[in-house]
TrEMBL record:
Belongs to the metallo-beta-lactamase superfamily. Keywords: Hydrolase, Metal-binding, Zinc. It comes from Shinella kummerowiae. Residues 103-304 form the Metallo-beta-lactamase domain. Gene3D superfamilies: Ribonuclease Z/Hydroxyacylglutathione hydrolase-like. SMART domains: Lactamase_B. It holds the Pfam family Lactamase_B. The lineage of its organism: Bacteria, Pseudomonadati, Pseudomonadota, Alphaproteobacteria, Hyphomicrobiales. GO terms for molecular function: hydrolase activity; metal ion binding. This is MBL fold metallo-hydrolase. It comes from the Bacteria. Signal peptide: none annotated.
Length: 331
């Protein structure tokens, strides 16, 4: 049960000197199907799934908040490409050319001293569509909402902040909240009114601003708790951040929305994505982040990667090939 590799150079973001992830599975992967047989065949009704593994002395848990099937992939990914080009790349990767599935996967890190949740899914607003299952998944894995001590907001798009409030009250009543100041300042600014960002602005006022008294800000390379460091990864949103988690010489990167599809965003990092607010900056960030991950052979968790949302990348062609986790975390 050894390390996969050792970092021998300074990271693009942090000083080197930590080894990459070698994570044995410590709890069973859970898949609970509470729906009827007919509902279970409807992809809008996501099965409840969690995956837990060990990172040094930390426990890392991913929870699928939901998944959503959509048509016309080129309307979201490769928006500066033809529909035929997008469909051809999907077909080459054994995927349908005219449809895709988006998963939403918050991550919890239990350090022993703190229970840190990264993003909160769709929340109550997504439940009519079979999503918003984070708190249900956390409870299945052994965590109640009042045990969460820190909630980290990687950025403030609706599928990341939707679960912050429940019934008009904080969903995680004992938590403090951490995010980047650049992100918060952008979204609360009343200048967003009358712009394409108005809906997001209203969402932040409803979901994030009520928690302002418990909110603290970090800058690039700022510490959330010992072993967890925030890194600027702007582009998808004005203040989008990723996070490096490390314990006992093991490390993993939580890439949030740096890449939103395991084929279309990773194999073609220059392709424009509908939801990237600064498309050129987002593409540059994708290449910077995944160059580092590939070179240092780090594992990563991506919010929209196929569940359990964890894997590796290797450089290839115009971008990167996603290598999903298999048994390497179980032995």
């Amino acid at each position: 049960m050894g390390d996969h590799s050792t970092i021998s150079r300074r990271s693009l973001f942090l000083a080197a000197g930590v080894s990459t992830l070698a994570a044995p599975l410590v709890l069973n992967r859970a898949a609970v199907f509470a729906q009827s047989e007919s509902d279970a065949t409807d992809m809008r009704v996501s099965p409840l799934e969690t995956r837990s593994f060990k990172l040094g002395s930390f426990r890392v848990l991913t929870v699928r908040d939901g998944m959503r099937p959509s048509g016309a992939p080129n309307e979201t990914f490769g928006t500066n490409q033809s529909a035929d080009a997008v469909g051809a790349l999907l077909t080459e990767n054994f995927l349908p050319a005219d449809a895709f599935v988006n998963s939403f996967t918050p991550t919890l890190v239990d350090t022993g001293a703190e229970v840190v949740l990264f993003d909160t899914g769709m929340g109550e607003g997504g439940r009519e569509n079979g999503m918003g299952r984070l708190t249900e998944g956390l409870k299945y894995a052994g965590y109640t909402p009042d045990q969460i001590s820190v909630v980290v907001i990687t950025h403030m798009h609706g599928d990341h902040i939707g679960g912050l409030m429940e019934g008009g009250k904080p969903a995680f009543p004992n938590a403090r909240y951490v995010t980047g100041r650049t992100e918060y300042d952008f979204w609360v600014n009343p200048e967003r009114m009358g712009t394409p960002a108005e809906q997001g602005h209203q969402g932040v006022l409803a979901k994030v601003q009520p928690l302002a008294e418990k909110l603290t800000f970090i800058e690039n390379e700022g510490q959330v708790v010992p072993g967890i460091t925030g890194l600027d990864a702007f582009g998808h949103s004005p203040g989008h951040m990723i996070f490096r988690v490390e314990s006992e010489g093991k490390a993993i990167i939580l890439t949030a929305d740096t890449a939103n599809h395991y084929v279309l965003s990773l194999q073609r990092p220059d392709w424009e994505v509908r939801f990237d607010m600064d498309k050129a900056q987002a593409a540059a960030t994708r290449k910077k982040v995944f160059d580092m991950i590939a070179t240092d052979k780090l594992a990563f968790i991506g919010y929209h990667m196929p569940f359990p949302a964890a894997g590796f990348v290797e450089k290839g062609g115009e971008g990167y090939r996603f290598v999903p986790v298999s048994y390497q975390f179980d032995i």
